[in-house]
């Protein structure tokens, strides 16, 4: 696949809203997807740095993080492109910009995402509870 990574622009928002919604509807089987909304993308990524994965200039995924804490909040890929390498490219591009240690939280119910991060060298460094469920804190050193 000819994926490219670039900085986010406001023109990306409509497509990334759709991706964020559809990816969660497909992957977050433990959650009530009726509570998901297109506007969630704007709320979750507000004031964050965002990189976008594209194919043929069209957005197919994104990663968003909070630089002051080296904390990744979101990594989502269009379900039709899942498992094809775009997530790994986004994560690696983000890590080039983040200081160390970098951190993220991943719901324990999100088994596929937890496996993805540990396969990329992230280590489980803690755990906790949230309204969404139990989570792991993962760290990249």
Automatic annotation (TrEMBL):
Residues 3-141 form the N-acetyltransferase domain. One of its GO terms (molecular function) is acyltransferase activity, transferring groups other than amino-acyl groups. It holds the Pfam family Acetyltransf_1. It comes from the Bacteria. InterPro entries: Acyl_CoA_acyltransferase (IPR016181), Bact_Acetyltransf (IPR050832), GNAT_dom (IPR000182). The keyword Acyltransferase applies. Coiled coil: none annotated. CDD domains: NAT_SF. Signal peptide: none annotated. Keywords: Acyltransferase, Transferase. The keyword Protein biosynthesis does not apply. This is GNAT family N-acetyltransferase. It comes from Dyadobacter chenwenxiniae.
